Amino acid sequence: MTSKSTTQTIAFLVLRLCTAAILIAVFLLVGFLVWNGAPVMSLQFLIESPREGMTAGGVFPAIVGTFYLTLLTLLFALPLGVGAAIYLSEYADPRRRRTLYIIRTATVVLAGIPSIVYGLLGLGLFVLFLRLGFSLLSSALTLSFLTLPVIVSASEEALRTVPMSYREGALALGATKWQVVRDAVLPFATPGILTACVLGVARAAGETAPILLTGAAYFLPQLPHSVFQQFMALPFHIFILSTQSVDPRLTRPLQFGTVLVLLLLVLSLNTVAIVVRSRYRRKYRRVSG
Amino acid sequence: MTEAKIQTRGLNLWFGRKQVLENIDLDILANSVTAIMGPSGCGKSTFIRVLNRMNDITLGCRITGSVLIDNEDIYSPSTDVVKLRTRVGMVFQKPNPFPKSVYDNVAFGPRIQRRTSKKELDVIVEESLKGAALWDEVKDRLNDSALDLSGGQQQRLCIARALAVKPEVILMDEPCSALDPSATAKIEQLMAELKKKYTVVIVTHNMQQAARVSDYTAFLYVGKLVEYDLTDDIFENPKNRLTENYITGRFG
Q: CATH for B4-247?
């Protein structure tokens, strides 16, 4: 009897420690970043350009660059990803298991490809072959490929949570398949789809390797004013500050400040997405009950 | 006797290899309420879903025989299924209003059929809600979410939504199974009104309900039509042993 309860105590202790390890990792990471990054955080830091060979000044152009990049990525990835999700969830003939299996597997494979490979693809396809050059456009196209799997699978999920009874209700009123999708499925899946897209681009916003190869710049005196220009971006800026510094003592605090800005940006995107999603779930629980 | 609105002849239906309906010949008369009654799994829901071709969306569904509405075969290749469903409306077992306003729910059908002016739409919405005996309860809350209505109101809203596309036939698949007795009573009263303008077919596993609301009753058992007659005759004077056993509560 004692040995049984002792085993149980030990088992639970181990499980608790596993959970604690996760929490500790997060707190250490965030705490370390805040501790080191907070001192340089100021309005100045957010709205100034880097100065004196990146040893002073702020990260404004990198914030703007990341903002443009994220927006442009969303612009490409949203229609493509949502379109594919609608096809998979509403139109694809479920009897054609093989075809669907191949499409789904392709999505999973796409999700598993290392980001540097996307970078190389972007370099070969967009920058060189399509002659888009090192540019915002090339980078955004590359990143939209990278976010596509997230957007497709999460959007499909959102479409499937729309109760079947809505589809039947609309069909019984003489709606065509397209009208069912447009009027009885999409409006109710929209919050979920948007959440999916935000989660997708939040990941893209933090990527370094793909933009490094397709359009991110070390330093630019001006903000980009066309999609064919190069741009600065937060993750790449961090990479530069931490590897190409002329004086690490001066750049180290700036580097942590930049990391903190990127982290806050990505976290707030995720928070927005999660809040929207939980509201939406609550709303539909009433219906499907 | 009025003429037959719907006629099925030698109707067979399979889901995959399983035969669900077997050789059904049934005439459903216009401006009457016809109840399809039988124990769970006898194919009664499947049967009414044949009448507006809702089974088309079910995988592996195969049908032989003919189904005529106004003497036209609705399974002929030239049938426009979308148009058929505007002629044959349907109310489902569980109320399924869209998570939109009361107004938008009723306006859904007319809006997808054709361009309708706001004025026209207002008239249709009011008429349909009146037709479903719901107008007085919701006229001041047309812009409220349909999900805020009670279950019985939601089901009448679904009836109004079906009426708004001006159907000829209304199919009801156990429309009261999710409702309390007083909401059920309201829907049953409504059926008596509806049959003046429409042909109503209702599926129910509730014998009392069949007896109360219908003019004709069909008794289905494991995919076969056992008996079909005037409701009074079925309940007072059943000709088949199975029917008798069912209505006297020996199984069900």
A: 3.40.50.300
